[in-house]
Amino acid sequence: MPRESRLEEALLRRAERIQSLRESCSQIFSLGRKITLEIGCGKGHYLSAYAQANPEELCVGIDLISERIRDSRRRAERREARNAHFFKAEAFEFLEAMPRDLKLEKIFIFFPDPWPKKRHHKRRLIQEKFLNDIRKFTSVGTKLYFRTDYAEYFEWALDAIKANPNWELLNDNTLPFEEVSQFQRILPNFSTLVAAAK
Ligand SMILES: C[S@@+](CC[C@H](N)C(=O)[O-])C[C@H]1O[C@@H](n2cnc3c(N)ncnc32)[C@H](O)[C@@H]1O
Predict the structure, then answer these.
(1) What are phi and psi of 183, to 5 degrees?
(2) For residues 141 and 127, is the Cβ–Cβ distance under 8 A?
(3) Is the CB of 65 under 6 A from ligand 1?
(4) Which of 50, 63, 70, 186 best tests ligand 1's pocket when mutated (most atoms within 8 Å of CB)?
(5) For residues 65, 67, 71 and 77, what is the CA-based torsion angle, rounded to 10 degrees?
(6) Shortest-distance atom of ligand 1 to CA 184
(7) Count of structural domains within the chain
(8) Which of 60, 112, 154, 180 counts the most CB atoms within 10 A of its CB?
(9) Ligand 1 closest atom vs CA 41
(10) Range of 144's domain?
(11) Confidence class of residue 2 from pLDDT cuts 50, 70 and 90?
């Protein structure tokens, strides 16, 4: 198949995924409430505990891997955290599926894939496009919490946030809630940063 047709097909599949995500999230989106979003929630260790401790917040976890979403849903059920919802979704596609007027309450990103090889750095989540895109769903002061064990990615994230006029780095890097995620258990040496939307 020629390159152009392959590209067209990939774009078509992406549009279909976004449409189907809109449909599966429609009940949550139609509430019109702010969402506390965890991107790359893995098996839901953090968000299910967070949601249980903060029943007044509407919590959504997304991950690329279906099995992890199934585990997350089970974990939230066991905790009776009915305000925790999990969807198989890629971060940019989830943002595209979100209604434009919906806002995020908080954003959690813990132990994201570090993409250590230089040629793969462009796949890292924290970079200019992501920071700009997600800013559209935040209000001034909305916080983004980021934690990684990978020192070089931490420095990269600090630089990306410092260089971005839409976000400011905060001195206080405490999380609103602590729960050891699956990756935090195996990677106990990590750094945390907190940024606020400007
Ligand atoms: C290293 S795991 C960390 C999981 C969890 N946050 C933890 O601390 O245990 C990274 C997770 O991010 C997911 N992920 C990677 N890129 C993503 C993206 N663009 N959108 C959504 N999830 C993503 C992966 O599928 C994986 O489950």
Answers:
(1) -75, -30
(2) no
(3) yes
(4) 63
(5) 90
(6) 8
(7) 1
(8) 60
(9) 6
(10) 3-197
(11) confident
pLDDT at 4: 85
Find the mean pLDDT for residues 105-134. Answer: 97
| Pocket residue to mutate for ligand 1, from 46, 64, 68, 149, most atoms within 8 A of Cβ | 64
- Say whether 149 is catalytic: no
* 87: CATH: 3.40.50.150
Residues sharing a CB contact under 8 Å with residue 9, sequence separation 6 or more, in sequence order: 1
Q: Is the pLDDT of residue 171 over 90?
A: yes
Q: Which residues pair with 61 in a beta bridge?
A: 38, 86
Instruction: Please choose, from the candidates 36, 143, 136, the residue with its C-alpha nearest in 3D space to the C-alpha of residue 96.
Output: 136
Mean pLDDT of the chain: 97
Q: Is 91 in the pocket of ligand 1 (CB under 6 A)?
A: yes
pTM equals: 0.97
Q: Which residue puts its alpha carbon closest to atom 14 of ligand 1? A: 40
Report residue 173 as tokens.
Answer: 């890097």
CA distance 43 to 40: 9
